[in-house]
């Protein structure tokens, strides 16, 4: 999942396709992808201000 998020943040075109359900990532469930779309599309969060914090 971490690599998927990093890839999306680096590639704006891929991010747009993912947000329109045009891209499915292997090994990540549809529920997880739907949850990630919900987080990334949160209108309260500025679109260019993403932060990924890892858990230890």
Q: Total strand count, please? A: 0
Strand proportion, as a percent range, falls in under 5%
Shape: globular
| Largest beta-sheet characterization | none
| Average pLDDT over all residues | 79
In whole angstroms, the N-to-C terminal distance is: 15 Å
Q: Could you characterize the architecture of this molecule?
A:
The structure is a single chain. This protein has 56 residues and is an all-alpha fold. It is 50% helix and 0% strand. Helix 1 (2-10) packs across helix 2 (12-19). The model has no long low-confidence stretch (mean pLDDT 79).
Quick structural gist:
With 56 residues, the chain is mainly α. 50% of the residues lie in helices and 0% in strands.
Helix and strand arrangement:
Blueprint: H1 2-10, H2 12-19, H3 30-40
Which key features would you list for this structure?
56 residues; globular; mainly alpha; 3 helices
